[in-house]
Amino acid sequence: QVQLVESGGGLVQAEGSLRLSCAATGGIFNSKVMGWYRQGPGKERELVATIDSGGSTYYADSVKGRFTISRDNGKKTVYLQMNSLKPEDTARYYCARGYGPIATMYVDSWGQGTQVTVSS
Q: pLDDT per residue over 26-80, tens digit each?
């Protein structure tokens, strides 16, 4: 059974950067789609970015050009580099493992999340 542990969240000023990491222990990683979701105050959880085993990526329109997802299969870790952060990026960010098309991944495991707060 996989366990996903996120790190790297925090408080940052607008236009700043943060790098989130998600380390997987146990279970399958290399062949799985990995993704980042977020849930802001009073909002539903939304897909931010995904990456498949071959390195193909998908981004929500709201983060295209600012966020970059990557993975290191040797370390069983997925990253989310977030640049030019905006106050509307404030949310709890969740790592997810799953399968299927990268634009609509089916999640089979969730991390506990890490809080990102962007001040104006």
A: 989 989 999 999 999 999 999 999 999 999 999 999 999 999 999 999 999 999 9
- Per DSSP, the three-state class of 6 is strand
Find, among 83, 82, 62, 79, the residue nearest to 71 by Cα: 79
Distance between CA atoms of residues 67 and 84, nearest Å: 8
Task: Give the CA radius of gyration of the chain.
Answer: 13
- Please report, as a single letter, which amino acid is at residue 62: S
Tokens 């996120």, residue located = 6
Q: Is 8 exposed, middle or buried (0-12, 13-18, 19+ CB in 10 A)?
A: middle
